[in-house]
Design goal:
7-stranded mixed beta barrel, Ntdp-like, DUF402 domain-containing protein, FomD barrel-like fold, 3 helices, 175 residues, globular, alpha+beta, hydrolase, FomD-like_sf
């Protein structure tokens, strides 16, 4: 698998299980790009939804993708502290055009005090039936949700103290 080079600017594209494009984030700057980990930064970028609607992010964010984990993490730097938004989905791929993954609906919102809420379980249940998610996918996602919650509780990976701040400092060097 190829991987994006440090300092390059790429798109991030999420898809649904049925192959339909779900969302596109423009202009994420690659801070670290390897075959196993991609860390990117962006600030007030345009996001395009599958129906064509567009909106702009409100704050700087650091994005963390791992090729072996069925989730990705976005750390948003807000005045009240770092808020995280975690998407359960396939490990990323990169094809030279964009970093891509399949979004499987379940999300985890993490607050600055490291408490969290699991979101969109109803959407996951509906899409599991509508798009006929295989049992293996359901099992992987449940294990991945447990792994993600454990990382949050233990403050590991992108949830380590100062992880987001340190990568944000690097992001500022590219602006």
């Amino acid at each position: 698998m190829s991987f994006p080079t440090t300092g390059s600017s790429i798109q991030i594209q999420s898809y649904k299980h049925n192959g339909q494009l779900h969302r596109v984030w423009e202009e994420t700057v690659i801070l670290r790009g390897t075959s196993s980990v991609v860390i990117g930064g962006n600030d007030r970028i345009i996001v395009t939804e599958s129906d064509g609607r567009q909106w702009r992010t409100r704050e700087p964010a650091i994005c963390y993708f791992n090729s072996e984990q069925w989730f990705n993490v976005i750390g948003m730097l807000r005045e009240q502290g770092i808020h995280y938004y975690c998407n359960l989905g396939t490990p990323f791929t990169y094809d030279g055009e964009a970093l891509k993954y399949i979004d499987y609906d379940l999300d985890v919102k993490v607050f600055p005090d490291m408490t969290y809420t699991i979101l969109d379980e109803d959407e996951f249940a509906l899409h599991k039936i509508e798009m006929n998610y295989p049992k293996e996918i359901n099992d992987i996602l449940r294990r991945s949700l447990d792994e993600l919650c454990s990382m949050i509780n233990q403050r590991k990976g992108p949830f380590e103290p100062e992880f987001i701040e340190n990568w944000y400092e690097r992001f500022l060097e590219y602006r």
